[in-house]
């Protein structure tokens, strides 16, 4: 009996000490130099006794790396939902395995400044995604990059709000 109680206590203590370490890694966002804009997500939530066990799903997003946009499709199996980006906001990200696995930092609802990580298995594309009339569409990466430059949109450097007015002579598609 005493051994069982000691085992339970040491297991509980390990969980208490390891959980903050997992979220602390996500809090150091300097280690997440990339940015991800999620356009579309489809998910299934798995729970037991009304407690979420895991969420798995797929989606479409853009990665911003070295000021270059690149679309990708992804799948995930994480402890929380991967929500679509609000407006032009992005999630901090880093490569776990270049062009195969991205790790993103997701905010913890109700805990400002706290984050958890989620791994996305990715299939990189040679175009960028954007929204047109509520639908997700694609365009060449160079065209999306031109749009970014004309509107001062640079999520890797904290500029997540594009200017409303574009320089004269520039076309708009969004």
Explain the overall architecture.
By secondary structure, this protein is α+β, with helices and mostly antiparallel strands. It has one domain (29-157). Helix content is 21%, strand content 44%. The chain contains two helices and eight strands, in the order H-E-E-E-E-E-E-E-E-H. The chain has a six-stranded antiparallel β-barrel. Strands 7-8 form a two-stranded antiparallel sheet. The radius of gyration is 19 Å and the shape is globular. The N and C termini lie far apart (66 Å).
Q: How are the elements arranged and paired?
A:
Blueprint: H1 2-27, E1 34-48, E2 51-65, E3 68-78, E4 91-97, E5 101-107, E6 115-124, E7 127-132, E8 135-140, H2 141-151
Antiparallel strand pairs: 1-2, 1-4, 2-3, 3-6, 4-5, 5-6, 7-8
Listing every helix as H and every strand as E from the N terminus to the C terminus, the arrangement reads HEEEEEEEEH
Based on the structure, what is the oligomeric state of the protein chains?
single chain
Number of strands: 8
Strand order of the largest sheet: 1-2-3-6-5-4
Q: Could you say how many structural domains there are in total?
A: 1
Strand content: 35-45%
Mean pLDDT: 83
Coarse morphology: globular
Q: Whole-number radius of gyration?
A: 19 Å
What is the straight-line distance between the termini? 66 Å
Query: What structural class results from the helix and strand content?
Result: alpha+beta
**What count of helical segments does DSSP give?**
2
State the share of residues found in helices, binned by percent: 10-25%
Characterize the biggest β-sheet: 6 strands, antiparallel, barrel
Runs with pLDDT <50, length 5+? 8-26, 168-173
